[in-house]
Amino acid sequence: MHKDFYEMRHEDERERMDRKNIKDTTLSANKEDHMKYNSRISSGPEKYFEPQKDEIFNPRDFTLIFIDSDSVTNVTTLNRINSRRVLIFCGNGNGIISYGKGKAEDYENAFNQAFKNMRNNLVCLSHDINFSSPKVMQGAHNDFRIKIWPQESPNYWGNPQIWKMLLHSGFVHCRYSCKSRKREPYSMIYAFFNAVTCNMTPAEIAQQEGRKVHHVSFGNKSATADLQYSNAPIN
């Protein structure tokens, strides 16, 4: 029995609708999986380490250090306003560091503000992986003082937060000392950045002082190297 024109058109329309339903089901399933993945990423701390379209550096290369959190109160004539503060630090171990401050009504929003502030405070240091700290660096803020000396084998004895920040900043040829009459994390982070941003590579120091790069060494060895080269016989 031959099918008439209307029956054939009805079957074609039904097949087209079936294909469309299958396609819509597949797209909705993929969209649902994508939404579940985004919700899982956006619900935990992993959301801060997912690369975004406008970022140059991969956030997964950085190590996040939680420095301090506290509560502050602003007393007005009408009310007391309680706020939460968060201070964080990050570094990739290769001369790129940053810090962030956040303040909000709760710790979650304060951390979000701190992370946004940290993205704006990225600093790229002068860094040589073979000789990370060839000069003495020192910084101060309020009552906090920090001094960093070059040393061939690192000695991180001291404040644990400072040696972690030094390590994740890429300084592996140094020792340090810090002085402060009270615990003030904000003064500590400011003094730390004042010190490490003065770092230079051996090539920059040699160019500035008019010396050879191999004359730039650890501590007093540079003077010994200069004396040895000055007394060397000329062939």
Commentary on this structure:
With 235 residues, this protein is of the alpha+beta class. Among the domains are: 56-124, Double Stranded RNA Binding Domain (2-Layer Sandwich), CATH 3.30.160; 127-220, Ribosomal Protein S5, domain 2. It contains six helices and seven strands, in the order αβββαβββαβααα. Strands 1-2-3-4 form a four-stranded antiparallel beta sheet. A hairpin with a 2-residue loop joins strand 5 (137-141) and strand 6.
How would the blueprint of this fold be written?
Blueprint: H1 5-43, E1 63-75, E2 80-91, E3 96-104, H2 107-120, E4 123-124, E5 137-141, E6 144-150, H3 160-169, E7 174-179, H4 185-196, H5 202-209, H6 221-230
Antiparallel strand pairs: 1-2, 2-3, 3-4, 5-6, 6-7
Q: In a few lines, what is going on in this structure?
A:
The protein is of the alpha+beta class and about 240 residues long. The protein contains six helices and seven strands.
Name its key features.
235 residues; alpha+beta; Double Stranded RNA Binding Domain; 7 strands
CATH topology of the domain at 127-220: Ribosomal Protein S5, domain 2
CATH architectural group of the domain at 127-220: 2-Layer Sandwich
> How far is the N terminus from the C terminus?
110 Å
Residue share in helices?
A: 25-40%
- How would you describe the shape? flat
Q: What share of residues are in beta strands? A: 15-25%
Oligomerization state of this entry? single chain
Low-pLDDT regions:
220-235
Strands of the widest sheet, in order across it, are: 1-2-3-4
Q: What is the CATH class of the domain at 127-220?
A: Alpha Beta
